[in-house]
Amino acid sequence: MRRKFIAGNWKMHNGPAATKEFLNKFAAELKASPETGKNIESGAEEIAFFVPAVSLLTAVQESSGMPVIIGAENCHWELKGAFTGETSVPMITEIGATHTLVGHSERRHIFRETDEELNKKMHTAVDGTLIAVLCVGETLEEREAGKAFDVIKRQFGEGLKGFDAATAAEKIIIAYEPVWAIGTGKTASVDDAEEVCRFIRGLAKETFGAETAEKLIILYGGSVKPENTAGIMAQPDIDGVLVGGASLKPEVFIEIVKNAI
Ligand code: 13P
Questions:
Q1: To test the ligand 1 pocket, which listed residue (223, 225, 247) has its Cβ within 8 A of the most ligand atoms?
Q2: Is there a catalytic annotation at residue 109?
Q3: How far apart are CA 203 and CA 193, in angstroms?
Q4: Minimum mean pLDDT range among 1-5, 116-120, 198-202
């Protein structure tokens, strides 16, 4: 059985003070739902927050003793150097964060990150002992032109170039986030989401073999809310959700976690 992975991506929200407030409230929500806590402690489910770089230290400190994972939203592919404004993998691990997102659609589209750069980030992150969540997803234009599967195949293939099967199974998570469903209120239908996630598992099988494909954690992201979580999580190839807007309120995010179980 693959573990469930329920993650929030805070994007450019929550500085240190808001991070502390959020995590204290979330701890209280968890305490009030002992069933949820039991699931997390058994390893059947993981909860993660991907937070802004300036809030990572506070998030790690405030979540100490809580069954939550703290990750970065982005990292650089070089270990150090003249890269003004960037955050390195050693800086992220020094703080105590264990995961990072790579290639979120906002990084790909607003900041023009390329597949080649993202592949370098994936390797630096994984070599630096982080678990890396590679985000893939097509734009509306690509979907309407019938190119969704080609785009996913390219992003998957280029992003994971040079990884072996064992590393892919243990250190990499894939998040399918159709760009047209992010922050728009338009969720992909569960059938569409499952179809692409099944396709991604098929790509993993072709690339790394059946055993790795079976182990690979695949998430869906794009307008996930408490009301649509259970339907998404019921899909056989979707193991978790990556939540933007609805992860910013502890009392809403805990409902997503509960509905995901
Ligand atoms: P929304 O949940 O706000 O649509 O954002 C999804 C997302 O981009 C998560 O990484």
A1: 223
A2: no
A3: 15
A4: 1-5
177 annotated active-site: yes
* Catalytic residue selected from 104, 138, 142, 255: 104
CA 7 to each of CA 148, 217, 260: distance values in angstroms, whole numbers, following the listed order:
24, 12, 11
Query: What element of type H or E holds 159?
Result: helix 148-159
Residue-range definition of the domain harbouring residue 72:
4-259
Count of structural domains within the chain? 1
Q: What is the CATH number of the domain that holds 77?
A: 3.20.20.70
**Segment 85-92 long-range contacts (CB within 8 Å, at least 24 positions apart):** 87/53, 89/124, 89/125, 89/127, 89/128, 89/130, 90/128, 92/53, 92/56, 92/128, 92/130
Residue 51 has pLDDT above 90, yes or no: yes
Rg of the chain in Å (alpha carbons): 17
Q: Which residues contact 15 (CB under 8 A, 6 or more apart)?
A: 52, 54, 55
Task: Kindly report the pTM of this predicted structure.
Answer: 0.97
- Give the C-alpha separation, 82 to 6, whole Å: 35
